[in-house]
């Protein structure tokens, strides 16, 4: 049992949000931030923030706040963002194309190493600096280019099949955009995105705010 | 001060996840689920779940569990998903097109009422059942069709301008996909999606799981 295994999933879930917030603070030129300031921006209880961050070591100074650059660097390291993961996107429909053009992937240090599709019309077309490759060569290319992360952007009906192919090819983790519950071996971590969560939260705020009522202003969400 | 204002943002954030989980349970034919079962699926402490749900009333029976259909219906109502919001997407690049084709919007009861773009080449083209309309008519169409939610899918450089136009047009809420921090009046709730959160979480699990180590299997994420 290693130490990291005792970190709760809820804490791990919050780390990327801390990281993003610290990146924003860096962009704004803020050098020191208190847990109260972080709490206000993230709408997380400051006590919870202190508890979460204390778990990973000593990043702040009592009564002063957290050093933004240092904390950002440390959380980035904890998140493994210093490891330059190689990523493959499978499925070059609109969603796949949007992801291939999404600059956040590169900004986090991830490298788009391959794009796959099964459609002969799409195979060979250019997306940014890459050409779409035939999914028939998936296993070969994943091994050759040392690709660790597979991004599933195919229609729901094909998602499990692609996941199976990725697993067989030795992928280490999966980022899934298909609205299905994937079955993958327990040793392969995966993250499924579901846009309905953000849209539902917005619906909640619309339902419970009247146009004249600014009370919820501090509760605006960034997922 | 109305009652709903005392619900914490953290609780509101979890409601859409409860809703999605209950939808999955419904699809699987599960009729009753304990807070432990929900906790296992969502990786949320069962105690936290009981606390969150108790806030909204009595949905379960001690020692039996929650009635899935009833709880799903109630949370859907709390989230305002029974209100049939009209939605407009602004920006018909790959992301906008992916969102226009995203079935989750309709599944939640939202109605895609308009699609806007500024590019003359794109205006007039068909996306599903709709035609892309000229953003010059944004205000007019939003009023005419009673559109409450604007989805920003334009490049970052144009996002604030579009947000300003939406606000001037009387939009009630904004779902933002541009990687910028929007400034909108406090009376307009907005949700910003940031895919880097999911990708960072995946990076964390890859960093802290070895290929032989299945220990993190219960911690797979669905954001």
TrEMBL record, chains A, B:
The keyword Translocase does not apply. It holds the Pfam family CoA_binding. One of its GO terms (biological process) is response to redox state. Homodimer. It comes from the Bacteria. It comes from Selenomonas timonae. It is found in: Cytoplasm. Residues 17-56 bind DNA. The lineage of its organism: Bacteria, Bacillati, Bacillota, Negativicutes, Selenomonadales. This is Redox-sensing transcriptional repressor Rex. Residues 80-181 form the CoA-binding domain. GO terms for molecular function: DNA binding; DNA-binding transcription factor activity. Modulates transcription in response to changes in cellular NADH/NAD(+) redox state. NAD(+) binds at residues 91-96. SUPFAM superfamilies: NAD(P)-binding Rossmann-fold domains, Winged helix' DNA-binding domain. Keywords: Cytoplasm, DNA-binding, NAD, Repressor, Transcription, Transcription regulation. One of its GO terms (cellular component) is cytoplasm. Belongs to the transcriptional regulatory Rex family.
């Amino acid at each position: 049992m290693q130490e990291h295994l005792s970190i709760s999933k809820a804490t791990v879930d919050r780390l990327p949000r801390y990281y993003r917030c610290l990146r924003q603070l860096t962009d704004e030129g803020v050098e020191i931030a208190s847990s109260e300031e972080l709490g206000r921006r993230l709408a997380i209880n400051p006590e919870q923030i202190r508890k979460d961050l204390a778990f990973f070591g000593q990043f702040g100074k009592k009564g002063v706040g957290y050093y933004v650059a240092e904390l950002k660097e440390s959380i980035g390291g904890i998140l493994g963002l210093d490891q330059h993961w190689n990523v493959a996107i499978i499925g070059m429909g609109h969603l796949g194309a949007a992801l291939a053009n999404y600059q956040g992937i590169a900004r986090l240090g991830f490298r788009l190493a391959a794009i796959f599709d099964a459609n002969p019309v799409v195979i060979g077309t250019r997306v940014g600096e890459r050409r779409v490759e035939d999914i028939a060569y998936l296993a070969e290319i994943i091994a050759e280019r040392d690709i660790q992360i597979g991004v599933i952007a195919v229609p729901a009906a094909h998602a499990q099949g692609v996941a199976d192919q990725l697993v067989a090819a030795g992928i280490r983790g999966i980022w899934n955009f298909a609205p299905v519950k994937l079955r993958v071996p327990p040793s392969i971590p995966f993250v499924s995105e579901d846009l309905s969560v953000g849209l539902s939260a917005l619906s909640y705020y619309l339902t419970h705010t009247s146009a004249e009522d600014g009370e919820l202003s501090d509760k605006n969400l960034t997922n």
